Amino acid sequence: MTDLTAPRASRAPRALARLARYGAPLLVAVALLASSEGLRLATVNQLTSLLLLAVLAMSWNLVSGFGGQFSLGHSIFVGVGGYATAVILDLLGLPLVVVLVLSGVIAALIGVVLAYPMLRLRGPYFAIGTLGLALAVQGWMLNWDFTRASQGYSIPLDQSVDLLTVMRIAVVLALVAVIVSQLIVDLPLGLRLLALRDNEDGALALGVRRLRTLLPTWAISAFLVGVMGAVVALQNGQVTPQSAFSIQYTLDAVIICVIGGLGTLYGPLIGAVAVFVLRQFTADFAGWASLIEAIIVILIVRFAPDGAMGVLSGLSRLVRRALVRRRRLEASSSTESTREGVAA
Amino acid sequence: MTAFRRTVVASTIVLALGLTAGCSAAGGSADDPVVLGASLPLTGPLQAFGTSLEVGYQLAVDEINEAGGITVDGVARELALEIQDNASTPETASEQARDLVLESGAVALLGPATPPLSIPVSLAAEQLKVPAIMTITPIQAWKGANPEGWKYAFDAFFDEVQMTDTQFQAADLVETNKKVALFTDLEEDGIVMGGLWADKAESFGYEIVAHEEFPVGNTNFSAQVSEAKASGAEVVIAQVIPPDGIALLREMKAQGYQPEVLFLEKAGNTGGYPQLSDGLADGVLAANWYAEGMGLDREADFIADFAEQTGGVNSDLGTIAYGYSIARILIEAIESAGSLEADAIVAAIAATDGEYPAGSIAFADDHTAALPAVQTQWVGGDQVLVLNAGGDAASSIAVPVPGLQ
Amino acid sequence: MELVVQGILLGGLYATVALGLSLVFGVIKMVNLAHGEFLVLGGYVTSLLVVSLGGDPLLLAIPAALIVGALAYPLQRYLLTPLMRHSTEAPITATFGVSVVVQTVLLLVFTADPRTLNAPYAASQVEVLGVGMRTTLLIATVIGVALVIVLDLTLRRSRFGRQVRAAAFDPDAAGLVGIDLKHTYAMVLAVAAAVSAIGGALIALSFSVDPVAGTGWLLRAFTVVVIGGLGSARGTLAGGITVGLVETIAAAVFGAQYRDVAVFGALVVVLLLRPQGLFAKVQRA
Predict the structure, then answer these.
(1) Which of B42, B145, B215 faces A139 most closely, judged by CB atoms?
(2) Contact status, residue B156 vs residue B360, Cβ threshold 8 Å
(3) Beta strand pairing status for B235-240 and B285-288?
(4) Residues in C touching A301 (Cβ below 8 Å)
(5) Which residue in A has a C-alpha nearest to residue C29's C-alpha?
(6) What is the residue extent of each domain of chain A?
């Protein structure tokens, strides 16, 4: 969204804006961490769930929003991260931070291994292929004895983590996700991603290497989702193939990004808040929540394809245009009055 | 809108949400009702369990409130039941269990039915240190999910080890060649019970001649059924979900496979299953936790009050009785603890020893109360008791399976 | 031998189930994530007709197909076609939304209990080449082959077929020579939905349908279409038979618990090796 109507914006405010873009999330995160002691446990728990949804959506958005690769396989990384954490905590008992990072790294590695063949597929084929992969992996996990097959894996109670710590981890993770998203957009990688998404042939002609652009993005996305899956496992105390590898995670990411605005920086955050609030209100009849969500998704896709962010920037454009028009009117009427004055 | 302003908007939204969530109050004064929470599968594949449990829980709460509420710290207080719908998904059940305790101020939780939902809720109870009672959750699967032992959660239901005896005991009541074909799916209980049946067959004098395993959602049983038929098994024991059960029955009918007895566990505990399967499930056997003639507390009352609602005397009616029973146990425990202290309530639940509509319930040290499984046969809309809790004949079994003829 | 016959007949049902998906992808170039719900709706509508009117479910599947097709026409015309201009993801997302709406409404109205269609031939068996086979699967195969032939001839010979092929080959040029693309696309989705509804009735007749059964069938259909080649009716039949064979043989060799892994694994492998499908001669997509 380049601002053509604001030629006055010089370099200094732009640097300030950049500082604010990185500083504001940092401030929010620090504020949350600092005040976390005083928060009610209910708030702590809800905030954790909200932040995890947001991380999931932001990470998916990197690949599918900015990268234009409609992935239906992200549930794999939630499951890999969750299982990695449960198994490592159970068998090795490493420090929590190490376990979390390791879970993310394992998810990223598996992501790279899968992406190598998958990224050869284009458009709808990529969507179908990743979906098939997600289901094959889930089917395999239901049978794999090492992860106790369909019985699932419990995190040992003596290794379990209290909700406040889980929330702090979620805050840090969300901060990392926001910063990483912004970095990707600011760095040449982001430009190449957008170029590939908007005009692949053109981008390739200009020397953009497809795999070299998409593979790191995919790995970063898989890492973030892997850690997110690890935190979900900590929050729930257990992972099972049905829940950790549930396609629902991918669908949640799609719903949130569509509602917030696919391929925008803050859309996934806004979408996550919207979906989370909706689910809180419909907790008494969850069956209806998915109906309402789906109808909203259809309406947004049809009438506001850029999601909430699109609506917001559209509104601000309208307001700005109205302001400009009024200023012009005022200016012209004042010149007219001076003219009249001269004529008189 | 500049990037700066966008950032401010986004961060404000996040902060505002955090604060509004933080400001909503949690009740705790002596005038407020005492809240019991339950995340139930009111929609989705486990809907029948959820709606039946809700009826049972509500009945117990209403009875106590009509009698003047419960006395906590010397003050009589009303009881309130806070119910949320988890749409049969484990993640939502886990989420809602925490929410019910933290946000709605529930002092204890009542369970959602089946291991995939009950285990996450039990884990949440342990995490938050609040008492919780599960039911309609076979106790070995529940125990296995937490090898260190449950401290705040309890479970009252049948034990798979005893339940997997009943099929052989019931098969003993009729004349068969003692050859068994097993059909088990890959859900957790399918694997556990499949293993138990395979291990036990010999000690009961039976031989497993075919063991078919398949993923949940299997539709095509042609190869498995023809294998089982070729093996000549006259006893079929299956552990399948309802739609897969119908596919299995249709394939058996199509291939003209008529075993003497057919146990359709899990699928067979669906209310009105013979109608859903166009009569194919008529005469199908299923282990059960409730039936007329078990001589349970208030049996006649429950049947008179709810048989119409559940479409007959079936597992759904039993689920109401079980839900009522564990809700009563929880309420009595709070009453006898005389406080809302979690540890006091847990101690009182552990000390439970009495007759309830679900049977006589006393919890062992591992927080489980094993209730006997019986065997029932579908006759019309009812599941008729054929094997009682002692493992003896209750009424004669119709052979071969009437629905497959 | 027995496995081969079983696999082929199962493949006939799969071809019927996948035909609509293939048509939509081939002509409109759109992935329809609501395809499974067309199938399930077909099963439910037929079941409602059987309950209210009485009669043979196979005959009543025809009006059910018309009803489901009539529901699909405005869906394409007023929702999906306008979205195709925006991006390729937009219609995918919209069909995903539609699929959730249909699932949830069915769940709220009919509960999660499975539904079946009953007929004297629903649970009976016939001998094919000396191998006993479910009558419904044989019927499904006959219907599947018939639908493939009819669809193939329609696409090749009729005026509508020429319009559809022109629209598939080059939408812009087709628009220029006066073909009403909006109407053509909507008709294609309607036909696809109607064919799927018949497939759904066959599923309910052979097995059962429930509100969330669509997802599983959608994935089967995807596999069939990917293996057979998108947009080719005859390829779909070949794909259906291949999947039927893979499934039956994998279950016999590795055990039925690995059936899903084998089928979705095959989907991924074929996508990687021959994205245009095993049976497509020219890459069109």
Answers:
(1) B215
(2) no
(3) unpaired
(4) 83, 90, 93-94, 97
(5) A124
(6) 23-305, 307-344
pTM, full prediction: 0.84
Which CATH architecture fits A23-305? Orthogonal Bundle (1.10)
With CA atoms as reference, report the closest residue to B8 among A275, A27, A257, C143.
A27
Check if the beta carbon of residue C42 is closer than 8 Å to that of residue C68.
yes
Q: pLDDT by residue (tens digit) across B312-346?
A: 999 999 999 999 999 999 999 999 999 999 999 99
Contact A291 C268 (CB under 8 A): no
- Is the pLDDT score of A28 beyond 70? yes
Please tell me if the domain spanning B34-159+297-370 has the same topology as the one spanning B161-288+375-404.
Answer: yes
Distance CA A92, CA B165 (A): 39
Q: Which CATH class is domain B34-159+297-370?
A: alpha beta
**CATH dotted code for B161-288+375-404:** 3.40.50.2300
Q: Which of B219, B229, B316 to mutate to test the interface with C (most CBs of C within 10 A)?
A: B219
Q: CA B258, CA B255: separation in Å to the nearest integer?
A: 9
pLDDT bracket for residue B12 (50, 70, 90)? low
Backbone phi, psi, residue C62, to 5°: -70, -55
For the record, the structure tokens of A333 come out as 């009427």
Cβ atoms of C39 and C217 within 8 Å: the answer is: yes
Of B381, B308, B242, which is closest to residue C112 (Cα–Cα)? B242
Q: Is the pLDDT of residue B17 over 60?
A: no
User: Which residues of chain C neighbour B88 with C-beta distances below 8 Å?
Assistant: 112
Residue ranges and CATH numbers for the domains of chain C are 2-273 (1.10.3470)
The alpha carbon of residue A28 is apart from the nearest alpha carbon of chain C, in Å, by 32
Give which of C116, C125, C141, C258 to mutate to test B binding, by max B Cβ within 10 Å.
C116
Q: Is A117 on the interface with C (CB under 8 A)?
A: yes
E strands, B258-358, where?
261-266, 285-288, 353-356
Q: A30 CB near a chain B CB, below 8 Å?
A: no
User: What span, in angstroms and rounded, lies between the C-alpha atoms of B96 and B93?
Assistant: 5
Tell me: the pLDDT tens digits for C68-122?
Answer: 999 999 999 998 888 887 777 788 889 989 999 999 899 888 888 888 888 888 7
pLDDT attached to residue C285:
36
Distant-in-sequence, close-in-space partners of B132: CB < 8 Å, separation ≥ 6: B97, B108, B109, B110, B111, B121, B122, B125, B152, B153, B154
Q: pLDDT for B137-169, tens place per residue?
A: 999 989 988 888 999 999 999 999 999 999 999
ipTM: 0.82
Preceding amide of B112 cis, omega within 30 = no
Taking CB atoms and an 8 Å limit, are A133 and C96 in contact across chains?
Answer: no
- Mark yes or no for CB contact C264/A135 under 8 Å: yes
Distance (Å, whole) CA A27 – CA A20: 10
Q: Which residue among A20, A143, A246 sits closest to B4, beta carbon to beta carbon? A: A20
Give yes or no for A297 touching C (CB within 8 A).
Answer: yes
Domain ranges, ordered by start, for chain B: 34-159+297-370, 161-288+375-404
**Token reading at B33:** 């009702």
Cβ contact A215:A67 at 8 Å = no
Our CA-based measurement puts residue C170 at a distance from the nearest CA of chain B, in whole angstroms, of 40
**B261-266 and B235-240 beta bridge pairing:** parallel
Instruction: Name every chain A residue with its beta carbon within 8 A of the beta carbon of B99.
Output: 42, 45-46, 283
Mutate to test the interface with B, among C103, C257, C260, C264 (most CBs of B within 10 A): C257
* C-alpha distance from A196 to closest chain C C-alpha (Å): 14
**C132 has a chain B CB within 8 A of its CB:** yes
